[in-house]
Design goal:
The chain is built from no helices and eleven strands. With 114 residues, it is mostly beta strands. The chain is globular, with a radius of gyration of 13 Å.
Length: 114
């Protein structure tokens, strides 16, 4: 399984970005897919997830601003990020869980300027 994350970039505070995570495996085979992020000098933290049944959940810090979604035909999961803040600056990683296995994509850098 390979996960390819893309869509990061530099944006001003209040702006938006959409991250994509393309999977080489049909995404409905995964128990869940999610996004994590890691800011410089900090531990990686969970951001959002979507289960195989379509249920979603978000970290309190992004609730109401970020939306996770998926396109099964494209085997891709998205993270729409609105009202971005400088504290959202981080490398964003997508992951997928299947039974006891966890897969990670490479990170994509998101930088929010004030």
């Amino acid at each position: 399984v390979q996960l390819q994350a893309s869509g990061g970039g530099l944006v001003q505070a209040g702006g938006s970005l959409r991250l994509s995570c393309a999977s080489t495996r049909r995404i409905f085979r995964f128990d869940a897919m999610g996004w994590y992020r890691q800011a410089p000098g900090k531990q990686r933290e969970w951001v959002a997830l979507i289960t195989s049944s379509g249920n979603t959940n978000y970290a309190d810090s992004v609730k109401g601003r970020f939306t996770i979604s998926r396109d099964g035909a494209k085997s891709t999961v998205y993270l729409q990020m609105n009202s971005l803040k400088p504290e959202d600056t981080a490398v964003y990683y997508c992951n997928a869980e299947e039974n006891r296995a966890t897969y990670w994509g490479q990170g994509t850098q998101v930088t929010v300027s004030s």
